[in-house]
Write a sequence for this structure.
């Protein structure tokens, strides 16, 4: 492909937003991510799934400059990214973390304002002198932050301390803060972990709404119903390697994916014994209930 066609492709509706090429991440002797390539196009919601320890979060860390990949290249909208988190954010990629990282003792609004700092142009002197330029910028920032709190359904909690929010709302606040950097691509690492079914459903709607605003989304999640409802395309990582990639239908039907999740049963495996114990206990409880009912 020539440079000209690449440039043309990037300006069309199906432009490539993220292109990871042969990303490998080694920690000493351990290869956590092995030669993974993945593309996210404009308007897409792409899922990244795989068993625990498959390398999903490590791959995110390679995309966002938190890790410098041992090999490979990551480009955002056709430009190779410098491996520095603040430069990646500035370029247009925002993320949330598997382990929530909010400023617990700041308010909800302040947390979103922190997320805006890469987009405010006012410098140090302007901030110190608190001149009219700074005040205008600050007002505009607050207005935008409030808009994002409305969008994520947290506006009424703007003045609450982040640490006082229930867990599900802390996850939403992480999303609001990520959106505050005005990204073109949002990376979500297990956004529904710890949520109840209603909250998960609301998060699904929120991700659709984010996509409808023109932000591409790459999402890691263990909740398969959530992933298969939401995503246009799903990639499966197993032991650091991309095993399968395709539409939800294709991925769901792939026997290698099923095997990777369930694993091949071993003879006398501890899981089997544990399962047998649980089944026996349930059977006994069931029998006791029947006796109770009979009384
Ligand atoms: N900084 C690090 N140093 C050494 N090993 C690491 C580091 N980060 C991750 N690993 C290892 O890399 C592998 C992949 O971990 P990773 O957290 O990316 O998996 P994951 O797919 O996100 O799993 P989960 O679904 O449990 O979040 C694991 O074996 C992990 O122990
Ligand atoms: Mg992870």
């Amino acid at each position: 492909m020539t440079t000209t066609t690449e440039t043309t492709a990037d300006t069309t509706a199906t432009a490539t937003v993220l292109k990871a090429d042969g990303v490998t991440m080694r920690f000493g002797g351990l290869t956590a991510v092995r030669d993974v390539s993945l593309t996210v196009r404009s308007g897409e919601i792409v899922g990244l799934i795989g068993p625990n320890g498959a390398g999903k979060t490590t791959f995110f860390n390679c995309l966002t400059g938190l890790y410098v990949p041992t090999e490979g290249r990551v480009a955002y909208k056709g430009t190779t990214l410098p491996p520095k988190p603040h430069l990646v954010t500035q370029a247009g990629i925002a993320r949330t973390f598997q382990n929530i990282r909010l400023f617990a003792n700041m308010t909800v609004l302040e947390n979103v304002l922190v997320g805006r700092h890469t987009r405010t142009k006012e410098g140090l002197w302007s901030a110190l002198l608190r001149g009219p330029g700074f005040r205008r910028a600050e007002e505009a920032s607050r207005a935008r932050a409030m808009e994002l709190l409305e969008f994520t359904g947290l506006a009424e909690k703007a003045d609450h301390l982040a640490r006082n929010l229930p867990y599900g709302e802390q996850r939403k606040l992480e999303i609001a803060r990520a959106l505050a950097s005005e990204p073109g691509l949002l990376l979500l690492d297990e956004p529904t972990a710890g949520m109840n079914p209603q909250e998960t459903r609301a998060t699904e709607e929120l991700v659709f709404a984010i996509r409808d605003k023109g932000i591409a989304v790459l999402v890691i999640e263990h909740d398969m119903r959530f992933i298969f409802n939401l995503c246009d395309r799903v990639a499966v990582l197993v032991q650091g390697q991309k095993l399968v990639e395709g539409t939800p239908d294709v991925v769901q039907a792939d026997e290698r994916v099923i095997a990777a999740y369930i694993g091949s049963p071993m003879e006398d495996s501890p899981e089997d014994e544990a399962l047998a114990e649980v089944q026996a206990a349930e059977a006994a409880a069931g029998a006791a209930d029947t006796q109770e009912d009979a009384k």
Summary: The CA atoms of residues 108 and 157 lie 7 Å apart. The first strand starts at residue 16 and ends at 27. Strands lie at 16-27, 30-41, 45-49, 71-76, 79-80, 93-95, 185-189, 216-220, 233-238, 241-246.
